[in-house]
Amino acid sequence: MSKVNFITAIGTPLTDDEQLHTEGLGIQLQDQWNHRIGGILVAGTMGMMQLLTDETYRRLVETSVNVSKGRGEVLVGVGDAGFARSRDRIRFLNDFPIDGVAVLAPYFMNFSQAQMIEYFCALADESRAPLYLYDIPRLVGVALETETIVELAKHPNINGIKCSGPLWMTRRWLDMLGDSFRIIIADVYSIDMLVRHGVPELLDGMWAAAPGWTVGVADCSSEEDWAGATENTRKVSSLKDTLLVNGFGAFTVWMNARGIPGNFAPRPFTKITGEQHEKLLADPIVQQLIKEDPVKLD
Question: pTM (2 decimals)?
Fold first, then answer.
């Protein structure tokens, strides 16, 4: 396998009353580890942390840590709208043997870059585990500027960043910060190119739905089967396109069809049912997913 570390932003399966679906979570985690995924991000964007109750969040963390013990890296999302709630999540996580916390920029209100530097540094001081910046400006409404990231990289407990912005910007950060700061890229549409050019770490929620296709990119690349790597990338990116067209409820349909129970799209997301459900299941890329990338429990 090509030397690339895939980190999956796992989904959070819920019961009909929006409690944690423990069985679904366990199956999902086993599926990821058995497909040779290198790490997981719990309660990230795909995990819908901000839509979960505090009790569900706690159970999600506890179960994920227990199931994943000794299997790979475990990162946990903590970023909330303000300092106090994010700090309290970190204090809760300090009792768990996790490998890092991922923190969004504070959202809802507008904050300056200087205020965000103070925010992230204060949270890093609170955390036992290394802190990773979680940059996703299209959702939080603010981007971390290059000068801000360079300043934050000086903090001894801020170890890296998950980048969701344009590749040219990510490349700039790679060149500036080098090996001293982890640059973890999220780009579903360029997996094959990034792996081929030696980008060491990739993170996305789409790996949760198609872990076999995802690691298949690296497997093909290690054998210099570039056509195979490109084909696996095409399949994963086609799934992403289907998600964009059908809404987040499509993720639940895929996961259930692969054998992972639970609802991954809490309210106010609309559950896909009836004719739309049948049409989505009949989509050629979804049929291909069910056939080629079934859940792997052993």
Answer: 0.96
